[in-house]
Design goal:
Helix content is 1%, strand content 39%. It has 350 residues and is mostly beta strands. It has two domains: 6-193, no CATH class; 205-349, Immunoglobulin-like (Sandwich). Strands 15, 16, 20, 22, 23, 25 and 26 form a seven-stranded mixed sheet that branches. Strands 4, 6, 7, 9 and 12 form a five-stranded mixed sheet that branches. It has a five-stranded antiparallel sheet with strand order 14-13-17-24-21, with no helix packed on it.
């Protein structure tokens, strides 16, 4: 199992999560599945709120996971490269409230926690961004880092061999650096324009076998672990109830069709994407699928394509585990301009 950071370009995350699963759809560790910005394209001086979907899918959750945010966003990093922000975190430059801390400094008490974080963009975020040839409208960028950690957060010495690895780590109370299952580092890019706008996609329904899951069975945030005194959930709390697979993990397992209904209005015009005639095209939208029990046939499914519009065959296939148990499936919808929305439901394998 590797503890090196890996990249998930579709979600703009730098993930330090386990790599011992079969596909990205299977959740077995601490993971970020997506971060939603209330204004995916903001304006200078806007107050912007970020909300992340952080999942703790470890079997042993005796050390609880918390989401920590680096409180000082990185504004207009050199060449728009997120790792040019790391000098602020490692103490090699100013510009960050954490910049004076030495390597191995414990910053846990300095970091805001929770699934949401708000900030105000600088009034000059666009005018201080270098002009980028071919970019179209002038823009500015803020990079926000967070970490889902099951221990304490420390600034660590930068790795000269891996300049793109964030100088942050997660440690237990004894000072031991935790492994890849126990933390993940995320980043979110917030773009600012004077005139361009973007909204998050809308999910009208989560479909199972072509039928919408009832509203009272939908999850919009990760639920808390039940306490020992909570009554057990009956089948009515689950959007999917399915018999276990008895034919092996992949071959011969019954498959359940899953999809999301996203209205055509969510595919907005993208003035930054021009066709061969110079006309703007619409956004691309796709859905990423995840499960804490069972798996999916595809990591992601395309929903809308810029020139063709809605994709008619966008359903994914869910396959149950061989062992009974309860879990959650998540569907995270993205557009290619930073818009994000998600929905989940509980699954019971009998």
């Amino acid at each position: 199992m590797s503890s090196l950071c890996r990249f998930v370009p579709l979600t703009l995350l730098v993930a330090c999560a386990a790599t011992n699963f079969d596909s990205q759809t299977i959740l077995q560790s601490v993971r970020f599945l997506g971060t939603r910005i209330d204004k995916p394209y903001a304006r200078p001086s806007d107050r912007v709120t970020l909300e992340t979907l952080a999942i703790d899918a470890r079997i042993d959750r005796s050390s609880p996971m918390k989401v920590f945010w680096i409180p000082a966003p990185c504004i207009n990093p050199q060449r728009d490269l997120y790792y040019m922000c790391f000098s602020q975190l490692s103490g090699k430059s100013g510009g960050s409230s954490l910049g004076t801390l030495p390597p191995d400094g414990d910053i846990t008490a300095l970091l805001p926690t929770g699934n949401t974080f708000s900030m105000t963009l600088p009034s000059d975020i666009i005018t201080t961004h270098p002009v980028v040839a071919g970019a179209g409208d002038p823009y500015g960028m803020a990079v926000v880092f967070n970490i889902a950690c099951t221990g304490r957060v420390k600034v660590v010495a930068a790795d000269s061999a891996s300049p793109q690895a964030p100088p942050l780590g997660c440690f237990d109370n004894a000072g031991n650096r935790l492994g890849a299952d126990d933390y993940v580092i995320g980043l979110t890019r917030v773009y600012a324009y004077d005139t361009r706008t973007n909204a998050n996609p809308v999910i009208d329904a989560l479909l199972v076998q072509g039928q919408p899951v009832a509203a009272d069975k939908l999850l919009l945030a990760q639920p808390s672990d039940p306490s020992p005194t909570d009554p057990p959930l009956d089948d009515t709390a689950f959007g999917i109830v399915v018999d276990r697979c008895t034919e092996g993990k992949r071959g011969g397992c019954p498959e359940i069709a899953m999809d999301v209904t996203v209205p055509a209005s969510s595919q907005e015009w993208n003035p930054g994407d021009l066709d061969k005639n110079g006309n703007p095209q619409r956004e691309q939208l796709w859905a990423s699928y995840y499960a804490t029990s069972g798996d999916f046939g595809s990591d992601a499914r395309l929903l809308y394509e810029p020139s063709q519009g809605k994709i008619s065959d966008s359903a994914n296939k869910y396959r149950a585990n061989q062992t009974p148990g309860d879990g959650i499936v998540w569907v995270v919808v993205h557009d290619n301009r930073g818009g994000t929305q998600w929905v989940g439901t509980r699954v019971r394998v009998r």
